[in-house]
Structures are given as structure tokens and as C-alpha cells.
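Listing S7. Sequence submitted for prediction.
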Amino acid sequence: MAVLDHAIAKSVLVDRRRTTERLVLRAPQPSDAEAIVALLNERRIAENTVRIPHPYSLADAQAFIASANTNEGETVFVITRKSVGVILPAQKLTFDTAAPEKMELVAGRCRVKLPGANAAREFAAGQSFDVPGQSSFEIEALEPLHYVCHFG
């Protein structure tokens, strides 16, 4: 039973999030890979660390994410930024992204055309969508849309 208790305690610790008004502290996830590469593929970073190679590739980031929180006694978190906002029904808006973003819809409905998509897709409260970094997306609020955008 002690092994089961330890496994449960570890999974709770790994899944725990800390959120402030502007930041989220959470376990790394696959959608973070592009942002991790953008931040760590810098020679000065590698020169000041022991475990970060240079150049830092997408494969390196994916391996890091896959191994995060699997070692006994080691807990890995990432810090992300977030913004909260409202989009009122109007014309389509286009947003550019520098880093990957995750849009969580709190209330309302919208149509979104994501990069590479042929058509817009409808999303509603309780759903989310991911937008790659260095891209843009179109959004049209069908009713007042309340969202939380996680980025960086």
C-alpha cells in the first residue's frame, strides 16, 4: 500500500498547478516544445548550464518533456504567462503569435481559423484550442467571448 500511496502523492504533485493573476506554474506538456526550443537554443544559455546542449533542437525539447517528472525526487515545472480578455461580436479579428498559445474559452462561442486549416471551426465555453508560435489565427466571436490565453 505504501507504493500506491507514494504513486498517488507523486501524481498529485506533478499535476498540481499554481496560478496567479499573470502566471501559471505547471508541468511541461508536448505543446510547450516549440517555446522551449525558442528559449533554450541560445549558446549563452548552454554555456551556463550543465545539461542543456547547443544547438537545442525540437527533439531535445520533446525528450525533456517526455522525461520530466519521471525521476524520483525531481519535480519539473514551467512558468507560463496568461492574459484574460473579452471579445465582443463584430468582424473577424486576426492575431499574430510569437510563442505558442493555448486559448481556453470561459464563456461564449466563436469561430476560429487556425494556421493551415481550410475552414474555420466553432468553439464554445469549456473548450480550448492551441495556436503554434510564429503564426496567426482568425477569430470571430458569435456572442460575447470570455477567454484565458496562456502563452510564452
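Caption to Listing S7: primary sequence and predicted C-alpha cells for the chain studied. The first helix runs from residue 2 to 15. The two ends are 40 Å apart (CA to CA).
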